[in-house]
Amino acid sequence: MCFLTHLNILGHVKKRYIRFIEADWNARRFLLYRFLFGLFGIILGAPLVIVLFFLQPFVPIKLGILKYERIGHLIANTEFWLRSRCYQENKNRGIIIFFCGRPLANRQILNMIKRKVFVIENTLLTEWVKILKKYYSFAPWIRLDNSGFNSWEIWNSVGPQLNFTEEEEKKGREILKYIGIPEGDSFICFHARENLYLKKHINSSLPIDWSYQDYRDSSIENYISAVEYMASKGIWALRMGSAVSKPVVSNNYRIIDYANKFRSDFADVYLMSHCKFFIGDTSGIFMLASAFNVPFVQVNLVPLIFPARAPFDLFIPKKYWHIRFKRFLTFREIFRMGADRWTRTEQFKKAEIELVENTPEEILGVVEEMNDRLDGVWVPEDEDEHLQAQFRRLFPLDNPAVGFPSRIGAKFLRENRELLL
User: Fold this and answer.
1) Are 223 and 188 in contact (CB under 8 A)?
2) 6 pLDDT more than 60
3) Rounded-to-integer distance, Cα 231 and Cα 229, Å
4) Which residue from 102, 99, 163, 103 is spatially nearest to 291, judged by alpha carbons?
5) SS3 of 355, please?
6) Which of 159, 182, 302, 374 lies in disulfide reach of 318, CB 3.0 to 4.6 Å?
7) What are the backbone angles phi and psi of residue 315, rounded to the nearest 5°?
8) 96 Cβ contact partners less than 8 Å away, ≥ 6 residues apart
9) Is the pLDDT confidence value at 330 over 60?
10) Percent of the chain having pLDDT more than 90?
11) CB neighbour list of residue 57: distance below 8 Å, 6 or more residues apart
12) How far apart are CA 364 and CA 222, in angstroms?
């Protein structure tokens, strides 16, 4: 085997050199340190990787790196791997070792993962293993690239793999009491994405412009009508988030700004896994609900290739307003131009498309539907199934979302028939 084929060191060195020349002096020091660290990592890691490779037929040892920087990837990618292993009749055998740095996303999730698999938590060691994975791709690596999207059968055939201990369940009930929710009362959780988390928690010695993901943001104000409706039904509503810029403004005592008053890593996981349902967008926190099979009302969906993943989930998408045409694009037009797969803000700007958030009325409509469905009192209209089928038929056969098990909000479709043309 020719190691140069796998390493491609010269190409990586060239890219690093160009980046070094274009950087300022502070960034150059960081790049130089990282380059030297990587170089020594490659040299020192070669014997280890070679030994692991040749040991596979006798003592299979597989290595993996948890995606610990963001909450969605930490729980989703790991949970999907655990569900996949459970789904397969011939489970992965041998010794499995995961590596993880300091969990920026959530300590409680990592604690629960450690109860399922062996994890070595060390940031420096994990950075070294990342280098080995990058340059020695032939080694026995565990892939955690899939978060479960588009693998509907596996995700929905196997139940949640992470669980709470009896002591943690007791702690969770005490937290609910401390927050002010009486024992036995139902509650929902809600969250609106903003880029403050990335700016605050994902630090780097090199500047990162996170605005390329701003197209996914949404306004918490548009959720208020929906959560006030739930409060009128006697259901408590907790605003989630580890980094939020605006408080929730409501005079209803059942609507609690948990993110600004009570937030903790443990409570995030406990509340999201025990709520009646979760209202959110594409921010990764929704996976705290999905990983525990809690129903998800997904609003402001964008791009269209990432609809909610479970049969009991509902979603409504952002609308695509074309600035020059002065109208909303139909779903057919969105698919035709490939905008259903765009994942960068500049792609929409270049195409003169403005993404329009769901209105308070639209969010209220899909929340009412979810609550009625869960309570067993939902009454569909005669045209609902026809509209659902019409929407699904618009997806091209090569679209990654084809076959999604969730449903688009019934009221949203009724009021936006023109988008189905």
Assistant:
1) no
2) no
3) 5
4) 163
5) strand
6) 302
7) -150, 155
8) 61, 62, 64, 117, 118, 142
9) yes
10) 67
11) none
12) 9
Q: Give dist(CA 289, CA 295) in Å, integer.
A: 7
Nearest to 78 by CA among 265, 341, 290: 290
Calculate mean pLDDT across residues 177-203: 85
| Helix, strand or coil, per DSSP, at residue 105 | coil
**Paired tokens of 229:** 């409706």
DSSP for 270-282? HHHHHSS-EEE-S
Mean pLDDT of all residues in the chain?
88
Q: Contact, 277 vs 188, CB < 8 A?
A: yes
Kindly list the distances between the CA atom of residue 96 and the CA atoms of 55, 147, 253, 407, in Å, as whole numbers in the listed order. 14, 19, 48, 37
User: Which two tokens mark 353?
Assistant: 């498309």
Do the beta carbons of residue 100 and residue 121 sit within 8 Å? Answer: yes
Q: How far is the CA of 37 from the CAs of 30, 44, 45, 180, in angstroms? A: 10, 10, 12, 50
pLDDT exceeds cutoff 60 at 36: no
Q: Does the predicted model carry a pTM greater than 0.85?
A: yes
Residue 168 CB contacts under 8 Å (≥ 6 apart), including other chains: 266, 270
